[in-house]
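for the writeup, i need someone to sanity check this before i put it in the appendix. the sequnce is what the collaborator sent (i think, or maybe the updated version? ugh). structure was predicted straight from it, no edits. if anything looks off just tell me and ill rerun, i have time this weekend
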Amino acid sequence: MCIRDRGKKAEAIQILNQSEEKLGLKGKEHPRYTKVLLILGQVYLDSGNLDKATSILEECLKILTVIHKENDHPDIAETALYLSMVNLKKQNSSDARNFIEHSRSILRKSSLPNTNPIFIMAEEHHKAIMARR
């Protein structure tokens, strides 16, 4: 079980910030750095700091679109999924829908099975958005 799942969000943020420094990749177009950003964005989302989550996840998405030039990579889909979740919590339904549709589109084209946790989360989140209409 990861530290984020145990509810130790402040500790998780500290560890993730330290890992950014240890990796020496801050601001660089590197997959490891985007993983740190993705998890950090999730922690801020979980803790309710939606503005911080948005800025971190947007930075992650920007770097991922440079790394994966075709823009149809599952990492982009996962980041878009979390941006959709942030926007839904911010009551920004339009952006939430746009991000989840982008995520689902990528996931449907990918080789990931529909039993993949990210695929399942995207489908459940899409249902939640549609239920709010």
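DSSP finds six helices and no strands in the chain. The radius of gyration is 14 Å.
thx in advance!!
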